[in-house]
Each structure stands twice: as structure tokens, then as C-alpha cells.
Amino acid sequence: xxxxxxxxxxxxxxxxxxxxxxxxxxxxxxxxxxxxxxxxxxxxxxxxxxxxxxxxxxxxxxxxxxxxxxxxxxxxxxxxxxxxxxxxxxxxxxxxxxxxxxxxxxxxxxxxxxxxxxxxxxxxxxxxxxxxxxxxxxxxxxxxxxxxxxxxxxxxxxxxxxxxxxxxxxxxxxxxxxxxxxxxxxxxxxxxxxxxxxxxxxxxxxxxxxxxxxxxxxxxxxxxxxxxxxxxxxxxxxxxxxxxxxxxxxxxxxxxxxxxxxxxxxxxxxxxxxxxxxxxxxxxxxxxxxxxxxxxxxxxxxxxxxxxxxxxxxxxxxxxxxxxxxxxxxxxxxxxxxxxxxxxxxxxxxxxxxxxxxxxxxxxxxxxxxxxxxxxxxxxxxxxxxxxxxxxxxxxxxxxxxxxxxxxxxxxxxxxxxxxxxxxxxxxxxxxxxxxxxxxxxxxxxxxxxxxxxxxxxxxxxxxxxxxxxxxxxxxxxxxxxxxxxxxxxxxxxxxxxxxxxxxxxxxxxxxxxxxxxxxxxx
Length: 523
Ligand code: ATP
Ligand code: MG
What we know:
Blueprint: H1 20-37, E1 41-42, E2 48-50, H2 51-59, H3 63-68, E3 71-74, H4 78-89, H5 97-119, H6 127-144, H7 156-172, E4 177-181, H8 186-195, E5 205-214, E6 226-235, H9 241-258, E7 264-269, H10 278-292, H11 298-306, H12 320-324, H13 335-350, E8 356-357, E9 369-376, E10 385-391, H14 395-398, E11 406-412, H15 413-422, E12 432-438, H16 441-456, E13 461-462, H17 470-479, E14 482-488, H18 490-495, E15 498-502, E16 508-511, H19 513-521
Parallel strand pairs: 1-5, 7-8, 12-13, 12-14
Antiparallel strand pairs: 2-4, 3-4, 5-6, 6-11, 7-9, 9-10, 10-11, 14-15, 15-16
The site of adenosine-5'-triphosphate has 17 residues, from strand 6, strand 10, strand 11 and helix 15.
């Protein structure tokens, strides 16, 4: 017998199942409704994009891009690519004429496959690929001379160089573009803004999205490799503080409508990348960090060089008293950023949004500026951030668009759902309103019609596909959590009076079809 292995969802991914999916739908429906009332429209960008887009927008040195993305070359030439790997890994022995001739024929076969793929447009027809193919051809010509006895005087050194020459050319071939599953969606939204010339629409453009994101992180509670975000972006227009505040107001309204408990909003301003603002502050911070370097852990010590702001993110207990004494950005903002921050806080107060200031809330990337915010919720343990957001006025320009203001947030939907479930707001199991217990051929025809009418009227109906004994049918009905059993046998069909049994009270009543619908609607 063949060995049938069992399949499991890939590590860090999971199936969302009923009844939980009902809660997901409710949350998403709430997002559609609330965001629409604030004038946002939905965007559905693709789930994969050129790797380069994320490298540029999220930053090549971030964990997300440097080690967490699912990236792959976009082509189907796996066979040819396998040949290439084979060629690159080969170390043919110069003295073994059979090994050399095998290598030569592998290279020639590879060349003709690549040639076909290029002509068929299955490989990108670029100058780099043309050059690599040329190099392969000349390498192949050169190496075949080692097979001819009259040139036996050639040295092993020359042979090795020729092999390397061929291998370099093979390695340089690009079979397809490098693409990645999206680790976040802000980059895609900005790309779409540019691609569709949205700067010609009335500004600002307000967009929201929801869907799966992919990051190869260590899975744990509230952290998955496929997770879901609901996010919104405001692009273009001014950077008026009211825009920041209204976006946050919308977010808190959404959480409120979802019934999320124990939410805490933290805000900060990280100024802008200028000497008299954040850059000046970072220099001060760095100098101070150097002074206390010996008391910091290895990660923080490294970050003093790579990204001093991120030291402020540290969760290590013994670093906390040291970090508390570090210079704070609020004291180093330029006048405009200071004014902007004060105005954002005022605008939040006008809207009755309660916030806490957290000077340690930073974003490591240069184009993030001014407002940053984060929301935590209860019941999530250490993964308690349900939303992160901030202003990123430089991003659209960085991606090749016109100078454009931008601000947005991303909610971790998985964590939002977890928190709702922890506080008892999970979805109830999906029951049925009516289970139709039918007996006999004639009753079956009536049962089909009854099911159709009841479903059209919006009731959840279960119609068993095969005839069941009366007792068995009622047992199934209760197992499915049905409120009523509609009993249809010969008698009911003949008299036109159907029997409706309340499964909680066991009360029965006889009703015509119309009376039945009226009765159910009246409940
Ligand atoms: P964290 O510090 O929790 O890793 P982050 O800074 O990586 O979060 P963002 O990139 O700002 O998070 O994404 C916004 C939100 O998306 C987070 O606040 C969180 O709720 C959620 N999120 C991020 N990564 C994951 C993941 N791997 N699994 C589930 N949710 C996630
Ligand atoms: Mg993270």
C-alpha cells in the first residue's frame, strides 16, 4: 500500500474556521462601515510585488526585508535552473576526459535550453542575459579544446579558469524577476497611488485595505507567518494636524464599534530628518549611548551604530533605568515639528480621543516623520500591539512619485480577534433556525419547496439529503443547534398543515405554510 502522508498547514499559517470566521466577518464588516463614513475607499492591491518595492519602501536593513520575506524568482524554468545549479556545483577533474566531456555536453545542452527560453520570451530578454549567454558560448568553445588531443599541452590552471568563466556566466543569468509575498501593504498603496496618477484626484486620497501579509517570523501566540492586517492610508493634500487626529479618531471609533477592551493609545512625534530636528537628536542620543555602552546588552550595543533610535524599543529589564535617563526627542524637535505635535494633541482632545504620550515610540526609517502612534489591547500577553501607524511624508517620492504627504496605520487583525475572544466577544456557534424532518417521497418534494421559501425569507435551514427515522432526525436537529424542527410527513402534505416543533420547549403546533413564515418572522 502506498504510504499516505498526512498534510498539515505550513508552520505559522492556520485555517480560520467557523464559528470564528463569523467574528472575522463581523470585524471586517465594521471596518468597511466605519471607514466608509470617514470617506475612505477600499483598495485591493496584489499579494505579491517586486522584491525591490519592499526593499525600498520598508528598508533593506530592516528585519522584515533582510530575513523575513518570502521571495522567489518569478519563472517556471525549474528544469533549466536545476541544470544551472548542476553546472555551478560541478568540479570536473582535468585528467578525467569522461568527466570533462560530460561537463561540456551539459553546458551545451544548457546553452540551447536558455536560447530557446530567451527566444520564447520565457526569460527576460535583457542586455545582461544576452551578455551572459555570449560568455557561456565562448566558454563552451574554449573548454571543448581541452577534449582535443593535440592541445593536450593546456594547463590545469587554464582549465580551471575556463570552468569558472562558464560558471560565472551561468550564475549571472536571470530567469525571472525577483518577487515577494507582501509583508505589509503601505508600499503597495503608494505604488498604486503613483501608478494610477492619483495625485490628479481631489487630495488627499483616502484608501483602506484588508488582507493577508507574510513574514517569516518565529510563530507564537499573536505572531504568525501568514497574518492579516486592516490598514488605511491618507495620501496627498496638506500635513494638517487635523488629518493625523481624524485618522486616529477613525481608528479608535472602529475599535470601539468592534467592542475591543482595554485599548490604550500611545502617541509621539519623531520630528523630521534635519540637523536642527531628529538628526541632531540622534547624534545627541548616540553620544549619550556611547557613554553608557558598557551597561547595555549586545543588541543595544550593536544598534548604537546601526540604528540608535531602536535602542529605545528595548524590552530588557536591566536597560530600562538607563534608557529612562537618555535624552528625549520632544526636547529636540524643531519649531515646526513642535507646533505640529502640539496641534495634533489639541485636535485629538477636540475629538475626545484619550491618548498617552510615549517618547520611546519610534520608527527606524528616515522617511517616517512627526506623528507616530500605537494601540495596545488587553488579553494578548507580550504581543499586545494591535495597531501601529505614523506619518511618512517622504515615501511616495522615494518610490518615484511626486512629493506627497502620507500617513497611515496597520491593524493586526489576528490580534484584534484574539483580544475580542479573550474578553468573551467571540462568535456563538452557528446554529440553524429550522431543521426539516421529512418522511416519504411526497413529503420530500414539499420539504425542498419549504427549504427554498424559508431560505429566501432569510432563515438558516437544514434539509437532510436522505430520509431519516423521526427520532434520528430530531437528534441531528438538536446537535446542529436548531431552534425548530419542521415535521413533514404524508399527513402534513395532505392536510397542508405543517408541524413545527420548538426544540427547546418540545411544544408543537400545526401551521399552514404562510402562517409558519409569519410565525417565524414574528419571533
Ligand atoms: P511587532 O512589534 O508586534 O512585531 P511590528 O512593528 O512588526 O509589530 P507593524 O509592521 O507595524 O508591526 O504591523 C502592524 C501590526 O500588525 C502590529 O501592531 C501587529 O498587530 C500586526 N503584526 C505584525 N506582525 C505580525 C505577525 N507576524 N503576526 C500577527 N500580527 C502581526
Ligand atoms: Mg515585527
